[in-house]
Amino acid sequence: MDNPVSFRAGRHVVYNMHVHLVFVTKYRDPVFAAAHLRRTEQIMRDVCADFEAELVEFNGEPNHVHLLVNYPPKIAVSKLVNSLKGVSSRLLRKEFEDLRFAYWQGLRLWSGSYFAGSVGGAPISVVRRYIEQQSRPPL
């Protein structure tokens, strides 16, 4: 059974805002293995926590990742995305030599674009299920 809607509260606000984010690797190259995705999830959880946001769901495939983020209204989604992509790119390329050399000059891991969708129309459970059903590469 789905969890009931839970609201978060700040000093002057009560909210329940979610965004579905999709980040694609540069050139859509399939560079992620399971270990990369596990580390990416941890990095993105830490970045979300720094923004007082919560990474509700994470999953990915060799060339892209899906995130469901509950975030406070004081956060601009574009600023959160820039930090998620920037920090994860820097740390993943630092920690995984294969990612450092996956691209010429090794400067960027992610495509410059991204998908961000408001999750107000569909029930959160449907979006969560969709993200959970995305396949991961074998261990």
From TrEMBL:
Domain Transposase IS200-like span(s) in chain numbering: 14-134
Transmembrane parts of this sequence: none
Pfam family, one: Y1_Tnp
Molecular function (Gene Ontology), one example: DNA binding
UniProt GO BP: DNA transposition
Signal peptide annotation: none
Superkingdom assignment: Bacteria
Name under which the protein is recorded: IS200/IS605 family transposase
Species of origin: Nocardia uniformis
Gene designation per UniProt: tnpA
